[in-house]
Design brief:
By secondary structure, this protein is α/β, with parallel strands linked by helices. The chain has a domain of 130 residues: P-loop containing nucleotide triphosphate hydrolases (Rossmann fold), CATH 3.40.50.300. The protein is 38% helix and 26% strand. Helix 7 links the parallel strand 7 and strand 8. It is globular, with a radius of gyration of 18 Å.
Length: 244
């Protein structure tokens, strides 16, 4: 089966003041591929995500979604509607309970939301990420870090988006919980056959989940390939990541 290109990033540059944050970033992401972008803190990973989410304007370059150039605001909104994002800090609203956080986008963007239907769907997503039904009424302050991360993942898959983005999904978690979250993400992507992008500094996550890896350093692509190629690569920086 020939897989279609979902996203193509071409010659993306981001300059702030006189500092080049991203330099000539280019890559493609096919349907059902899982791209993992790795790099140290400050390498430019988070800025790349912000540019893709429209939170930062591109200095130059382009993003193409399913063959269509994303240029105007209407294109950007159509693209964003196809994304499910799990943010690094979970980005849960303290004043909303768990199910309201999961269904937030639909609850407050739809003109006449069916609240009962949305709540039931949110509970189904809770169960998909391994949380009990009663957690639906809990508030973020009542959840552990691992539970909050699972709620963030549930929110990212709530609207059945074409593309999932996970920004540093294991940051702040202990090793045991990190493994559980990595396994959960892998299961969700495998079962749903979604296209996905994960941003991380965790090489174990990259090697376990990725079909394609990009290593970013100082705003540039230092290395790109699959996990098998990573093991035999002579790239010095990649070896530092692999050797921990």
């Amino acid at each position: 089966m020939i897989k279609r290109i979902k996203i193509e990033v071409k010659n993306l540059n981001k300059v702030i003041g006189d500092k080049q944050i991203l330099n000539n970033i280019s890559f493609t992401l096919d349907s059902e591929e899982h791209l993992v972008i790795i790099g140290s803190s400050g390498a430019g990973k988070s800025m790349l995500v912000k540019c893709m989410l429209g939170l930062e304007d591109l200095s130059s370059g382009s993003i193409i979604f399913q063959g269509n150039l994303i240029s105007g605001n209407e294109d950007k909104q159509r693209f964003l509607a196809n994304l499910g994002v799990c943010f690094q800090g979970n980005a849960l609203f303290d004043s909303y309970n768990t199910w309201e956080n999961i269904a937030f986008k639909s609850l407050y963007n739809e003109r006449s939301p069916n609240v009962l239907k949305l709540k039931q769907l949110a509970i189904e997503k809770l169960e998909e990420v391994g949380l009990p039904v009663n957690v639906a009424e809990y508030y973020p302050s009542e959840l552990s870090g691992g539970m909050q991360k699972r709620v963030g993942i549930a929110r990212s898959i709530f609207s059945d988006p074409d593309i999932l983005i996970f920004d540093e999904p294991t940051t702040g978690l202990d090793p045991l919980m990190s493994k559980k979250i990595i396994s959960l993400i892998g299961k969700i992507i495998k079962d749903s056959k979604k296209t996905a992008i994960t941003i991380t500094h965790d090489i174990n996550l990259a090697m376990f989940l990725a079909s394609k890896i990009i290593l970013i350093d100082a705003g540039e692509i230092e290395w790109a390939g699959c996990p098998t190629q990573a093991l035999s690569s002579k790239n010095k920086l990649l070896k530092v990541f692999l050797n921990g």
